[in-house]
Amino acid sequence: MARLAYFVRRALDALRRGPFVALVAVGTIFVAVLTTGLFAAVLSGAERLLDAWGGEVHISVYLRPGADLAAARAAAERIAAGRAVEAVTSRAALQRLKASLGDEAGVLEGVGEQALPASVEVRAPGITLEGARALAGQLEAVPGAAEVDYGNAWLERLETFLRRARLVGLLLMGTLALATAVLVANTLRLAVYARRDEIEIMKLVGATDGFVGVPFLIEGLLQGLLGAGLAVLALLAAQAALLPRLAATVALAGRLGRADVLPTPLLLALLAGGAVLGLLASSLSLLRFLRRI
């Protein structure tokens, strides 16, 4: 325990004696962790919005001309298992469209009542996204069903985008982590060379590589934790400032909280990642030097 305290004191003393090098290393790790955290937060928020959309799902079963609307509704009620089901005639569908257009409803002047198909609408609050997809597939069996729509066209594009974004994100994070480690290692090497006389004297009196290197590793660890900690604080501040504005623009975003965008495991992972980057960078810089003496 006394030896660990000695190593920590030496690391802190080195940080005080080389503030410029420490600042550059902390700043580099800060940028890397902040960039990674922002990307992860956007993906996490998008996934939560998809889940929230599942709670607002509205499935429309459009019927072929001449289909029995009452029979279709009865079949949909059996499939939907107690969920709210509504039959919408072609006339009612046209009236809804006119109401949604407001002052522009005049463009529909002269359009016949049969221009829009009759439909059966199923509301399934609280259903999951996968559940909505499964229920839509079952509703295709409704007599007279021509098409089942639950927003699947844009939803599938969004899901495809998120899958690709995750893959690209992993590649970018790996590349960014490697580049950051190399950059910070080159920066910390300046601190190692600044203390080369001290290190050489310690080696001459019998100090092991471990005894010489542990303070440098602790120094890298502290710099990594500091850079990552600042990045986490910046992410939390950005979330607190931007999430209310997003909620005012997108209704579903009102359901998002800090735990949805920046879950605690993600924040802890960012802190751990910063610490690992600091350790890796200090190890690389130290190994290069020790091999030369």
Describe the structure.
The protein has 293 residues and is α+β, with helices and mostly antiparallel strands. It is 72% helix and 7% strand. The chain has ten helices and four strands, in the order ααβαβαβαβααααα. It has helices at 2-17, 19-55, 69-80, 90-101, 129-139, 152-194, 196-204, 209-249, 258-261, 264-290, and strands spanning 58-63, 84-88, 119-123, 145-149. A four-stranded antiparallel beta sheet has the order 2-3-1-4. The protein is rod-shaped. The chain starts with a helix and ends with a helix. The mean pLDDT is 76.
Key words describing this protein structure:
rod-shaped; 293 residues; 10 helices
Query: How many helices in DSSP terms?
Result: 10
What is the rounded Rg?
Answer: 30 Å
Order of helices and strands: HHEHEHEHEHHHHH
Main pleated-sheet profile: 4 strands, antiparallel
- Largest beta sheet: strand ordering: 2-3-1-4
Q: What gross morphology would you assign?
A: rod-shaped
Measured by DSSP, the beta-strand proportion falls in: 5-15%
Poorly predicted sequence stretches spanning 5 or more consecutive residues: none
Structural class: alpha+beta
| Mean pLDDT over all positions | 76
N→C terminal distance: 29 Å
**Strands, count:** 4
The helical percent reads: over 70%
